[in-house]
Specification:
The protein has about 500 residues and is an alpha+beta fold. It has helices at about 1-25, 50-60, 80-90, 100-105, 115-135, 140-155, 165-180, 190-210, 210-220, 220-225, 230-255, 265-275, 285-315, 315-330, 345-360, 390-395, 440-455; strands at about 65-70, 70-80, 95, 370, 375, 380, 385-390, 455-460, 475, 480, 485-490. It is built from 17 helices and eleven strands. The strands form four sheets. Strands 1-2-7-4-3 form a five-stranded mixed beta sheet. It comes from Heterocephalus glaber (Naked mole rat).
């Protein structure tokens, strides 16, 4: 009986503490659904499709509202106006990185993606400058992407028009481009280390987008010691990080400070210059995590977009026909596509934009946090509060895009067939934390897809009308369903 009394008292105290914390944190936060003790609003959210839940809640509570994911308040921004106001107009105030427990455990606040504060600013500034100096967005990197596009075409020819799952083949090319920038090295497509890294990065994307990981990130203290796929993520990240550490050691042994070869060399040189600083931001551990960040982000986002693109194009053969007609007219069949071609190919440009808009690769931006107490639309958001940004609500806005749930390149074409820009096009996010590799990703998508369609027709193994284009998971990333296709040489 005594044990029962203690248990009841303990639970009562926990519930009281939960009520007290939630009411004390509410302050002048935006309104939102009433949270339950401890679990907050978790029962009002479909973990399998958080984006849809946020859209439904915004219809009731408006474009700015507060959710409790567990006992912590999170402010949600829904729709172009709210997102632009926060990320662009008040960019500095919303530039913090929100709490993501799995990445806090893995990256320890280091690197370029999951860090905050002055350390993040310096590492991001250095990374952007170094990537540009190494050719990102310039002709020098374009030639590397063109070379990799040729390797990709050769690899696709080896399938001899037989049905294949393109997942890994499409990952090799963007991964090798980022490898050439970071390590000054490209892998052979049959390299066992390369294949292992590609496999585990692909596995991590699926796990991180799964419902289990959404639960883990809401209740890390309860789940941290339980078995589950979050442990697989950590093991996989350690594998990649250990490989990166070995490459850093090799670079140190052959470093020439007057002739940096790649990103790692540039970082090591910066480390030497900063050696006398009281607060060291450029350390071996930060280098390993920054390189892992760039390696992972530079591989998976582009390869997943390419895979989804092929699925959509098979579903819409009439779009493929128009793109190939433009390729024949502007590029022909006997030279590699180049970035100058893009300005003469408005329909292809519109197709690329529509692919990114439609697939909505990152439905909910990685959480931000406010860097100070912020007055936002008559509400007060306390410093450190997590901010969830629905990129879906921008990319699928029916005021900007006539049929947002339909794949239609016409969304980016004017009445004269010219390419039409849109401020609502935010697949890379916006503001201070816009994707570091945006310029490279846009170049890769154009050169890889035009090279594929220049050399191959896409043949579905089922009737295109029966192709399922619904993502299998829709958490961190929208992952397309598995499919097979035949690359038929033109």
């Amino acid at each position: 009986m005594d044990a029962v009394v203690v248990l009841v008292l303990g639970l009562s105290c926990l519930l009281f503490l939960s009520f007290w914390r939630q009411s004390s944190q509410r302050g002048n936060l935006p309104p939102g659904p009433t949270p339950l003790p401890i679990i907050g609003n978790i029962l009002q959210i479909d973990i399998k499709n958080i984006t849809k839940s946020l859209t439904n809640l915004s219809k009731v509570h408006g474009p700015v509202f507060t959710l409790y994911l567990g006992m912590k308040p999170t402010v949600v921004l829904h729709g172009y106006e709210a997102v632009k106001e926060a990320l662009v107009d008040l960019g500095e105030d919303f530039a913090g990185r929100g709490s993501i427990p799995i990445f806090e455990k893995i990256n320890k606040g280091l690197g370029v993606i999951f860090s905050s504060g002055n350390s993040w600013k310096e590492i991001r500034r250095f990374s952007l400058m170094t990537l540009r100096n190494l050719g990102m967005g310039k002709r020098s990197i374009e030639s590397r992407v063109q070379e990799e596009a040729r390797h990709l075409a050769e690899e696709l020819r080896k399938t001899r028009g037989s049905p294949c799952d393109p997942t890994f083949i499409l990952t090799y090319a963007p991964s090798n481009v980022i490898c050439s920038i970071i390590f000054q090295h490209r892998f052979d497509y049959n390299d066992p280390i390369f294949l292992t890294i590609i496999k585990i990065m692909s596995e991590n994307v699926k796990i991180l987008s799964s419902p289990w990981m959404q639960v883990y990130n809401i209740f890390p203290a309860l789940i941290d010691y339980l078995p589950g796929s979050h442990n697989t993520v950590i093991k996989n990240v350690d594998y990649v990080k250990n490989y990166v550490v070995e490459k850093i050691k090799e670079h140190q042994e052959s470093l020439d400070v007057n002739n940096p070869r790649d990103f790692i060399d540039c970082f090591l040189i910066k480390m030497e210059k900063e050696n006398n600083s009281e607060i060291l931001k450029f350390t071996h551990e930060n280098l390993a995590i920054t390189v892992s960040d760039l390696f992972g982000a530079g591989t998976e986002t582009t390869s997943t977009t390419l895979k989804y693109a092929l699925l959509l194009l098979m579903k819409h053969p009439e779009v493929v026909a128009k793109v190939q007609e433009e390729i024949d007219r502007v590029i022909g069949r006997h030279r590699s596509p180049c970035m100058q071609d893009r300005s003469h190919m408005p329909y292809t440009d519109a197709v690329l934009h529509e692919i990114q808009r439609y697939i909505d690769l990152i439905p909910i931006n990685l959480p931000h946090a406010v860097t100070r107490d912020v007055k936002f639309r008559n509400y007060t958001i306390p410093k450190g509060t997590n901010i969830l940004i629905s990129l879906t609500s921008v990319l699928h806005d029916n005021k900007e895009f006539l049929r947002p749930e339909t794949f239609d390149p016409g969304h980016f074409l004017d009445d004269n067939g010219k390419f039409k820009k849109s401020d609502y096009f935010m697949p890379f996010s916006a503001g201070k934390r816009i994707c570091v590799g945006e310029a490279l990703a846009r170049m890769e998508l154009f050169l890889f897809l035009t090279t594929i369609l220049q050399n191959f027709n896409l043949k579905s193994v089922v009737d295109p009308k029966n192709l399922d284009i619904t993502p299998v998971v829709n958490g961190l990333t929208s992952v397309p369903p598995s499919f097979q296709l035949c690359f038929i040489p033109v």
